[in-house]
Amino acid sequence: MIKGILFDLDDTLYNSSEFVEIARREAVKSMIDAGLNIDFEEAMNILNKIIKDKGSNYGKHFDDLVKAVLGRYDPKIITTGIITYHNVKFALLRPYPHTIKTLIELKAMGLKLGVITDGLTIKQWEKLIRLGIYPFFDDVITSEEFGLGKPHLEFFKYGLNRMGLKAEETIYVGDRIDKDIKPAKDLGMITVRILKGRYKDMEDDGYSDYTIKSLQELVDIVKELKNK
Amino acid sequence: MIKGILFDLDDTLYNSSEFVEIARREAVKSMIDAGLNIDFEEAMNILNKIIKDKGSNYGKHFDDLVKAVLGRYDPKIITTGIITYHNVKFALLRPYPHTIKTLIELKAMGLKLGVITDGLTIKQWEKLIRLGIYPFFDDVITSEEFGLGKPHLEFFKYGLNRMGLKAEETIYVGDRIDKDIKPAKDLGMITVRILKGRYKDMEDDGYSDYTIKSLQELVDIVKELKNK
């Protein structure tokens, strides 16, 4: 008997990969316009290396980029980049098509819905609030709160616990095989892989019970499982 | 011979007191709507006490408010407050009337213009960029960069140094007697007090060489001083 669904956030409920990439590129263009004297593609290479080395939640990507290019701190250029990044991010932040309609139907079916996501709590909540979808979720569980993230099984167990759900009565929806689908499957959840974002070509290895292209396919999956 | 002007930022070039107050009130209203179960005026009293105790650059005002009211951390309510605060802030952030016209005229008179301000470098730069006035300033000097703020004379000396100006050839424009006008006068600058913001009724004690109600009066003051 299916009682709830746990969703991954980034690239599962909205287009994270694409919007972050566009926001970064526009930010770098604005920094060049503000005096960062470097070729655009070269700047993107340096920035991407900084993000790879320091992680996406490191707060000083643009500081390090300016330091690498100019050899000094320049608050005007850094702040120009930050402002452009946020302006573009907020402009592009929208749920995938059919997301809200699907969430309405799933709630109407009496399911508990939760989000379980790697990342900083306030940043992940900001996305849910700006996406306009947070009222659908009974709980939002972040790796920052737990102190350990995906793919650690303890994090998924903690999430199930907070939701008051058992693994076997829970559907897990995510985009990544390694960090979402495999651990959820290992815990005994019913796994639904959504083919979105930059990992959509990753080898499946049989961990997904279902594979969907759009969130709205979930409604039929739940109906099918309810009839079992 | 007047060669340059140093400006304070908050409440001198734009209406800081008013816009921060409105943004905070709207943020608290949105937090109450998101589940902060408390009377609005009571919430404002708690928030104002937190701001007074921790300072305006403390990053966790809303966290502390939620903790004080609910006895727990609630990221949904905190993030709702942060988003509303920033949305309102950006919507209200505009220079005082006549500011841009005045800055154009002052640059046309061949003056060096600078900003010297207490606060975090990126936050103060963000205001100048969003206000659209940063290209007028040859330099922006913040207390975070120097490590010591107003009214320390060393900070003002450091600012003059960065601008390549001597005190006696520099006009200082600010709204506060204690933190702006007195130290500038003590260093030998020509002091212009602008009657704006929450300190406009503060006793002068003779530290201001000029008192203005609008920035545009500066143009005549510079003309008068140039003729001396």
From TrEMBL, chains A, B:
InterPro entries: HAD-like_hydrolase, HAD-like_sf, HAD-SF_hydro_IA, HAD-SF_hydro_IA_CTE7, HAD_2, HAD_sf
Organism: Methanocaldococcus fervens (strain DSM 4213 / JCM 15782 / AG86)
Classification via NCBIfam families: CTE7, HAD-SF-IA-v1, HAD-SF-IA-v3
Keyword terms: Hydrolase, Magnesium, Metal-binding
Protein's recorded name: Glyceraldehyde 3-phosphate phosphatase
Domain of life: Archaea
Keyword Hydrolase: yes
A GO BP annotation: small molecule metabolic process
MF terms (GO), sorted A to Z: metal ion binding; phosphatase activity
Gene3D superfamilies xrefs: 1.10.150.520, HAD superfamily/HAD-like
Family: Belongs to the HAD-like hydrolase superfamily.
A matching Pfam family: HAD_2
Task performed by this protein: Catalyzes the dephosphorylation of D,L-glyceraldehyde 3-phosphate in vitro.
Keyword Metal-binding: yes
Necessary cofactors: Mg(2+)
